Amino acid sequence: MKTWHKVLLITLVFAVPAFALGPMIWPPDPHVGTPAGMQLALFILLAAITAITFGLGIAFLLYGLPLVRRVTDGSASRTWATFFATGWMLLSWWPHDNMHKHNGMELGGLLVIEYLFHVTMMVAGLIVAYNLVRSLQSAPKTNV
Among 94, 142, 136, 139, which Cα is nearest to 117's? Predict the structure, then answer.
């Protein structure tokens, strides 16, 4: 089986249940209004997108390490940091989005979400950006 077929299969195996289970694991806050019309459609679309990126994150963690090794020039620390940062940036949206729906506007919960997801996403972005710059600096220069 080709790798992209495996990635698609893993993505769907995790995305479909994630889409269905999100509201069961994190029931929406009853104090927040119920979306209707276009709002409901957009929330459903967002739930589908976050479930798909969750599945892609799992697939990346299963199949992405060899690719990350190729672009981090053999540095074990850069390889693992980039690997986990990229996986986190893909799969964390599903619990993040669902926790927001579940938490509503309770400020203590919002602070937990901010630090657990937003700050770690910033750190992950910095790791990936740093390693991209390092990889580009060590790449052979070509005239375009």
Answer: 94
Query: Is 143 domain-assigned?
Result: no
Residue 66 included in any domain: yes
Single-letter code of the amino acid located at 59:
A
Overall domain count for the chain: 1
> Does residue 61 belong to any structural domain of this protein?
yes
Record the tokens describing residue 28, joined without a space.
């929406």
pTM over 0.70: yes
Instruction: Determine, yes or no, domain membership for 113.
Output: yes
**Domain around 43:** 3-138
What does the alpha-carbon distance between residue 13 and residue 28 come to, in Å, rounded to a whole number?
24
pLDDT single digits (tens) 29-41? 999 889 999 999 9
b/e per residue 31-57 (b: at least 16 CB within 10 A): eeeeeeeeeeeeeeeebeebbbbbbbb
Contacts 24+ apart (CB under 8 A), 79-84: 81/127, 81/131, 82/127, 82/128, 82/131, 84/124
